[in-house]
Amino acid sequence: MLKAAVRIALPDASPGYYLTASLAITFPFNLLAGLPLYAALAQYLAGGR
């Protein structure tokens, strides 16, 4: 039902645009902040410094 509502509201919406936009926002964040945080958390949980 939601898919039909979006199709009516945005008939020319292409999945390529919103998929690319979401990756363009999240990928740099994950590289700069996410991976170091995940590594520190994993090291902490493993009993490391």
What does this structure look like?
This protein has 49 residues and is an all-alpha fold. It has one domain. Helices cover 80% and strands 0% of the residues. The protein has two helices and no strands. The longest helix is centred in the middle third of the chain and has 31 residues, at 15-45. The chain is elongated, with a radius of gyration of 18 Å. The mean pLDDT is 84.
Query: What proportion strand?
Result: under 5%
Shape: elongated
Distance between the termini: 50 Å
Tally of structural domains: 1
Low-confidence runs = none
Structural class: mainly alpha
Beta-strand segment tally? 0
What Rg is obtained from the alpha carbons, in whole angstroms?
A: 18 Å
The helix/strand series, from N terminus to C terminus, equals: HH
Helices and strands in order, then pairings?
Blueprint: H1 2-9, H2 15-45
Short description:
The protein is mostly helical and 49 residues long. It has helices spanning 2-9, 15-45. It has one domain.
Q: Features of this protein?
A:
49 residues; mainly alpha; elongated
